[in-house]
Design a protein that fits this description.
Layout: H1 3-9, H2 14-30, H3 42-49, H4 53-65, E1 69-71, E2 77-79, H5 87-106, H6 111-130, H7 133-151, H8 154-166, H9 168-176, H10 185-199, H11 202-235
Antiparallel strand pairs: 1-2
Helix pairs in contact: 2-4, 3-4, 5-7, 5-8, 5-10, 5-11, 6-7, 6-10, 7-8, 7-9, 9-11, 10-11
Length: 237
């Protein structure tokens, strides 16, 4: 047996197995391939990934700490439901971080980081044109994280990244209101933000950030209202 064959047949370390399971499940949860409330059975997941239950359990613990899965009193684990009642304070925090990070970015000059922002914008535009919802979510997240990084405050970047990650499932619902055919208007909004940042126009960057966050919040609020009205109509039948 060659050394390469030995490497290929070597058992995967528990840490790498946990990471593999965690990454895959996290992507499926955030993209809504695994909808809220879906059961996550350790035995079935172990069979699916061809690993013991130990890395599966550890991956589920990590997802639980991320707030993405919930362990019920009967010890069953499910994909965490979306708490729509908690959305108002979430939206307040999200809007604030859009403003803070975009204003900070407009106060800094860094050609290398601006190049990264433009690259992320190109990826977002490509995803929008392809009607690829998951790619849109990922590119949108990376675009705004890049803006936060240009702003230069690691605490802002860390908190905003956490908010963006927590909101990926909400953003998936947002894109679904457009049947995943997001208008190019939202690509143009990103372009306007880039132009304001490059110009060092802090006030315009702030105004654009408020408008950008505002239209997302309104669209999701309308979605939630329609969804609740449908539920009430069914209950009254």
């Amino acid at each position: 047996m060659t050394s390469e064959e030995s490497k290929s047949r070597a058992p995967r370390s528990r840490g790498s197995g946990t990471q593999t399971i965690y990454d895959r499940l996290r992507q499926e949860i955030l993209s809504m391939s695994l909808p809220p409330g879906s059961q996550l059975d350790e035995v079935r997941l172990s069979e699916r990934f061809g690993m013991s239950r130990t890395p599966v359990r550890e991956a589920l613990l990590r997802l639980s700490s991320d707030g993405l899965v919930t362990t019920l009193p009967n010890r069953n684990t499910i994909v965490a439901t979306i708490d729509f009642a908690s959305l108002p304070p979430y939206f307040d925090a999200l809007t604030l971080m859009y403003r803070v990070t975009t204003r900070a970015a407009a106060s800094h000059k860094d050609a290398a980081r601006m190049a990264v922002i433009r690259e992320r914008q190109s990826e977002f535009e490509a995803a929008v044109r392809a009607h690829d919802a998951y790619a849109m979510i990922e590119a949108n997240r990376e675009f705004h994280v890049a803006i936060a990084e240009l702003g230069g405050n690691p605490y802002y970047t860390s908190f905003f990244t956490r908010l963006l990650d927590e909101g990926r499932r909400i953003l998936r619902l947002y894109y679904s209101t457009f049947d995943d055919r997001l208008p190019l208007q939202y690509v143009e909004e990103h372009e306007d933000m880039i132009n304001a940042i490059e110009a060092g126009d802090v006030e315009t960057a702030d105004r654009l950030a408020i408008a950008h966050a505002g239209q997302i919040v309104r669209q999701i609020q309308d979605y939630v209202a329609r969804d609740m009205n449908k539920a009430l109509a069914i209950d009254n039948l």
